[in-house]
Design a protein that fits this description.
By secondary structure, the protein is an alpha+beta fold. Helices cover 29% and strands 30% of the residues. The protein folds into 2 domains: 80 residues, Multidrug-efflux Transporter 1 Regulator Bmrr, Chain A (Alpha-Beta Barrel), CATH 3.20.80; 104 residues, Alpha-Beta Barrel (Multidrug-efflux Transporter 1 Regulator Bmrr, Chain A), CATH 3.20.80. Strands 1, 2, 3, 4, 5, 6, 7, 8 and 9 form a 9-stranded antiparallel sheet that branches. The mean pLDDT is 94.
Length: 199
């Protein structure tokens, strides 16, 4: 049976060029945890661990479920809204992992129960939602997270050249590399934000 991999099914989202480009993002379902504060704080780290725990529980523990189809766990993504960029404690974030289309709210509830029973983890604050972003500007950033400003500046110039403006102050980051196993200057991160025409 074919294994579903969102990175292959939606190459336009995960295999982006190193230069800014436009992409129309379809609706996708996610497991999401909302929070705020410095991403180096335990709250963010624990959120990421819980999202992966639930995703792998779904992948490995529900193979006999009638809805189940083999899949590859998707990369971590996070939507960031940093009004005060220098004040990391003020950052608002939504960490998330995309899920296959066959996953339902009822199935997520069963995953919650299993994660709670087997691992003693509370997942009541994890929400399952379908998000629609629409038209976005995106590009692949290679390098440390601290150097993303240069890539965002290129994306802003792209917007100006194409008479576009950002739809909100938030942006999305999709982490294609494991920071624990990859040198900072080799990290691959897809950057994306929604746009609309300048009226």
């Amino acid at each position: 049976m074919e294994v579903y991999d969102v990175k292959k099914e939606l190459k336009q989202l995960y295999h982006t060029p190193k230069e800014p480009t436009l992409v129309d993002v379809p609706s996708l379902s996610y497991l999401i945890i909302d929070g705020e504060g410095d991403p180096s704080d335990p709250a963010y780290t624990e959120a990421v661990e819980l999202l992966f725990s639930m995703s792998y529980t779904l992948k490995m523990g529900f193979r006999k479920h009638s809805l189940y189809k083999p899949f590859t766990v998707s990369p971590l993504e996070c939507v960031w809204d940093a009004v005060e960029v220098e004040n990391r404690n003020s950052w608002v974030w939504s960490a998330m992992i995309a899920q296959p289309s066959w996953v339902t709210e009822e199935l997520v509830e069963q995953v919650r129960e299993q994660v709670s029973f087997k691992k003693g983890l509370s997942s009541s604050h994890v929400r399952f939602a379908t998000l629609t972003e629409g038209v976005c500007v995106t590009m692949l950033h290679i390098g440390s997270y601290q150097d993303e400003d240069a890539s965002f500046a290129r994306m802003e110039r792209f917007c100006a050249e194409h008479q576009l403006k950002r739809s909100s102050t938030s942006h999305r980051e999709m982490y294609l590399s494991n920071p624990k196993k990859t040198e900072a200057d080799q990290l691959k991160t897809v950057l994306r934000f929604a746009v609309q025409p300048i009226s």
